[in-house]
């Protein structure tokens, strides 16, 4: 039984409609490139939410008893089917969110790889014994928490879903899964594929907007609520789980800084900054959101950063150019542009970009701002668009101090040739991940633990499996025998 609410996307001509609209219980999604209809899906009702949680509760005991090696085998099979459906998933992702097709394919491949990692490490998930009295044994055993509600984002829907769902399933939990209403077709197909490879009730997919996510997060039948998305939604989930007693795992945005030291090649540093600021149109949780560049290299750095921005063009394949898709929808584009306008009105200079194209597309150009200061929204809030705001600093100490002053705590990058500066950055930046001399990257199976307004709990890796389990301590002594 495939437990999801997906229906086939339907075609339509371009229309002046929002990218996601809820009407008569349906989600209507349009392509942010041109406003053409991607499709309509029915939103889950209160009865659907109730039934999904009941199915998950009924299935949890048997799935928890399933040997870890068998659960791993199921994940390996699901990973293979995801790869078989890579093109379908990538095209849905691209149409719903505007993500370039090549990047969407990479997301599916990354997700399949994550499932395979959990298939391997699931059977090895930790427990330990404690030495006490010679006649007794203490054993700490990891057990599944029960029902995991997984609420996933639109910006990398398959890869992120595989992380949360894979860790939950590998450790013996059942899952109720809801994808973002901005990528519901991608999420629904993902749910179908995963559910088809599992016993009935182990994973149920639901489609809907924020109200469905709220209903799931507030239900006391959920033992874990795992959410990747906005800071506001994360705060709501924290409050809900405080009432129900469920564990909250949250990755909720960031305002990641990039500090450029005086002793690095400014052209290379600009390439790193452009990658961090403009990849996926700036719609990555760990995108570079604010840049602090040493005055000694600032002029050449900014010049090269503008050159990099000029190479980013809409869906182009010309030599020397880099394809950049639109933002997820025009509503989000308006929010990004508002940050840019506010910065310019407050004294920043826009060197390239910063203009809203006409037509139905949600495209926004790669934008470079200089003269930025602490009070500007582009420096203090998550813009989540292809905007590179630059502040020139007089030294590494000032750059690091500015990077530290922030309510978010997801990640940060430092470009430096100084081992001392790299060590200081690692120690002083209050974030889950510090990257030295590379804005992206990381070993397979690596984990991150956001802080502050960016969330709580580990994401990915063996540590996420720890989050999905609870520990029972078993003390076994010897009985006193008769006679």
TrEMBL record:
Cited PANTHER family: ALDEHYDE DEHYDROGENASE-RELATED
Gene3D superfamilies given in the database record: Aldehyde Dehydrogenase, Chain A, domain 1, Aldehyde Dehydrogenase, Chain A, domain 2
Molecular function via GO: oxidoreductase activity, acting on the aldehyde or oxo group of donors, NAD or NADP as acceptor
Any Pfam family: Aldedh
Ranges where the Aldehyde dehydrogenase domain occurs: 23-473
Keyword Oxidoreductase included in the entry's annotation: yes
CDD domains per record: ALDH (cd07078)
Keywords from the UniProt entry: Oxidoreductase
Name recorded for this polypeptide: Acyl-CoA reductase-like NAD-dependent aldehyde dehydrogenase
